[in-house]
Amino acid sequence: MAVEVRAVVASGKGGPAALTTIVVPDPGPGEAVVDVQACGVCHTDLHYVQGGIGDEFPYLLGHEAAGVVCAVGPGVTDVAPGDFVVLNWRAICGSCRACRRGRPWYCFATHNATQKMTLTDGTPLSPALGIGAFAEKTLVAAGQCTKVDPGVPATVAGLLGCGVMAGIGAAVHTGGVQRGDSVAVFGCGGVGDAAIAGAALVGATTIIGVDVDDRKLDWAREFGATHTVNSATTDPVAAIRGLTGGHGVDVAIEAVGAPQVYEQAFYSRDLAGTVVLVGVPRPEMELTLPMLEVFGRGGALKSSWYGDCLPERDFPVLVDLHRQGRLPLDRFVTETIGIGDVAAAFEKMERGEVLRSVVVLP
């Protein structure tokens, strides 16, 4: 039977993210309904509100979540009611050309729930990143549910659903950071600090955090940055070269999504080094680089899709590393809030006051 629950919905571009009532249907074939326990407030949700991702309003916001499966539809065998899961926005198909070549993290036919959640008047909702978890319950494709150790708090586990996984994966998977490498991370918010934590986890020896906010640089050091550069007062390219014997870093990670910052990352890497873009640019942004510099420096220019992660492989491992004390996921949680406090959390995020506000649901 369909149920009515509280949820945060953006009704139009630039409009408020308001608490309202939505209808969640029974799960159909291949679907699951999840009781959401916690959901992080990610900058991507704000992009939806501002119209920077699409115009399929109204949007059901929230996607960085963990909870317990309460119902599954016909044909679902991988998860069952009672399972503690992290939600992911890339349920893989298993049959596209990427999946057939053994690269499911690039799946080109990822999918979400077939049915739509709605407003009480029947208006269909577009769930953020196919999840929509600023809600007491949400409907997803069963493949979007990844079982993890229930001993970790939902406030921590849910962060793997987006920002933390994107950052760690940008360093470890896309960037291929290895023991002894030098790394620069541009933008020390949640994603950037996760990239720093990932680089530290695999043994990078020089990790340079770059930001315009000294508070964020303090956070970067907490996650493993060995050096920091305030690019508002210091040329970051010159500073990074000075910290790496004049050469530049092996891997430069851009976690802002801005052309001028990408250019700084490009020129801060060593010959044959790698640049990884994990920050989300706005649609109108463009990038211009001299082709001779692209050719002459060699190496690789990469974009990171969700940290090139495979949720069923990566989420349980990262939860285990946290439980072992090797990955401080709890440090990303600046505050816990109620479901009615999302709009205020967006404002704090824009002011740079928090790494993550996390909505906790009863």
Automatic annotation (TrEMBL):
Keyword Oxidoreductase found: yes
Domain of life of the organism encoding this protein: Bacteria
Signal peptide: none
Keywords: Metal-binding, Oxidoreductase, Zinc
Cofactor: Zn(2+)
Family annotation (SMART domains): PKS_ER
Molecular-function annotations in GO: oxidoreductase activity; zinc ion binding
InterPro entries: ADH-like_C, ADH-like_N, ADH_Zn_CS, ER, GroES-like_sf, MycoS_dep_FDH, NAD(P)-bd_dom_sf
PROSITE patterns: ADH_ZINC
Coiled coil: none
Domain Enoyl reductase (ER): 14-361
Assigned protein family: Belongs to the zinc-containing alcohol dehydrogenase family.
Protein name: Oxidoreductase
Organism: Pilimelia terevasa
